[in-house]
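Human: My hope is that you can spare some time for a protein that puzzles me. I am handing you a single protein, as its sequence and its fold in token form. Could you go through the record with me and say what the backbone is doing? Take your time, and here it is.
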Amino acid sequence: MQPLRPYEELFDTHPLLRLLVPFAAGIFVGEVCYAHLATATWALFGAALVAAAAAIVCHRRYERTLYSLLYVTCLNLAFGCTGAGFLVTARNAATCTWPDAPTNAKGIVVAPPRYTARATMADVRIVGGPADGRTVRLTLMRADSLAPGDALLFRTRLATPRGNGNPGEFDYGAYLRHNRISGTGFCPTGHWQKATPATARSLLDALPLLQRLKIKALRLRESLSKQFAGHLQGRSLAVVTSITLGDRSRLDDATENLYAQTGISHLLALSGMNVGILYAFYRFLLLRHVSGRRLNGVLSLAGLAGLWAFAFVTGLPLSLVRATLMFTVAELLSLLYFDRFSVNYLAAAALLMLIGAPQALFDVGFQLSCLSVFAILVLTPLAPRPWWLMRNRVVHFLYEVTVLSVAAQLGTLPVVACVFHTVPVYGLAANLVAVPLSYPLLLCSLVFLAVPFLRMPLAFALDALLRAMHSALEWLATLPGCTVSCSPTPLTAALCYVLLFLLLHGLHARRRLPAVLALGVAGLIAGIELYASRPGRHAGELIFYNLRRAPAVHCLLSEERSYLWTPDTARARADIDYLRRNFWQAEGIRPPHLLTAQGGRTDSLAPGSLLRFGGRTVAVFRSRWPRALPGRAEAVDYLLVARGARGHLAPVLRTYRPRLVVLDGSLTPFYRRRFAVEARAAGLPCHDMAERGALVVRTAQPATPVPR
């Protein structure tokens, strides 16, 4: 690994990085502005061609300052428009307008199903019909024996993936879109069945070649996982299949939380470390004994083929594809006497991945993988290496592991804090235990699969190593301050990387300007975080949560005092627990007091009952409304129509005159469509939470909510 030149020459010495940055920026702009660019694909590619032509013209007069600036601007614009065009094209290919009526379809299970206590989620690629080639995620009741390659016949109402849109909630709809899932549907018992073997074979033959090969690889992975299951069990089995085959289906929440708290979750995801270990073993056992250049080249190509076979068997996860691409580029260029590893090769691997799958940019695993490798390539050569440390091989190895761990954690810390809201304090110590053990774990696992008669002693060795590692991790997790909770804004995370770059640049160049700019950026970060965490920032907010099981209205007087109304606390408990972890704790909001309704009842608000808060009035419609209530229609701010509502909206509108009708996410699709049509026919604006997410209203004056 060669040290980088001065940081102002980073883009000059690594030209592919100059192309990757505007290309990724264009993908980001395309995602944000997709609604405006969905029909402008050819315009984006046309603008890219015009900008590229202008860059070529300006390059001929590059010696002049003006033309050099125009050249750089046009070049960045060309790659930015190209990235936006690729993103829009990919999203258009995966987008599908689903009918309101239930759809009869058939398809192939293309990924390992995920099992829950009540149902099974399966990704199914539809074969035939208007939605041919689209992949949908189905929730199936009583589906305990599905596997990749199974053919399904199903009937369900498909919908475009959408998240709930609650504050602080993970955007599940965007996650599915980025993974090219075009729709979601629910299939109760009797609305789906497995197809006959003859039908399954015909549907499989209709799939593209790459998809068929991937299904065969997943089946092979499942058979290999069963071989481990014959000799290991429990947590040991789950971890071995995860770090060896990428099969995370056996991991439980306790194991994932343990690895997350100690900062070694990367061990459970196949990445560059796995590729590096495998290729290091291959080089140690074979390549280092070969002296001929031609034979060395042939064996190197064979090793790369083995790495790609390993990546294919594990299901082609993005982090492993990035690492394998980088190793492939580096090894091919090393045969031509180029440097083996550099930022240029990382940029080449990332650029190739984004060209093939532009939405991979928004995958957190892809981001962390690229950032960790970039930090290792940039920071590791700057670490001091005293001669007295290099004399002992064991000490040298532990020192290099420490340097790599520190560099990787610095590179990923802002994203980890922003996405997961926690920072593992003892991550370095945990990596010093786990990373060295990963070498014998991976080697023993591969020998276990390759040599059947050694499986008994190897299984004992694997179980002993994992028990020792887990004991050390559990001890670290019990130490005080194992994790620190923090919730920086995305802007803060981006500015942290700017600050790190300025600090490194200042140390390397020994100039005052980077140090002054670093102080300014640090002050800006402090100001943004102080403003984002200012007291009273949520005072007076009225939040209509988009929950699937029951309606919920949250009235916040301040972060210290708030009230939550929900008619069915038991049904909404899981959603409330999720909000507590991801929104209330992250924002410093104390758990709210549960509101009681009329007469001490908490199960419902009877007709004529209102919820007043901060000068706003909410009426709730969640049962069959009487034809008419005595008195004149009362003006209210919001009419919340929730689960249990029956009949029509007209009787309710004779009782209340709302400014806005809010359709709760717990409504069935039938009543949601009916009430939306009736609200618009009455000339009332309508906020459908199933379509637009939760509703957050800022009231004028905080006051205690009172059911009346």
Notes: The chain has five domains: 7-94, 103-207, 220-485, 490-532, 541-707.
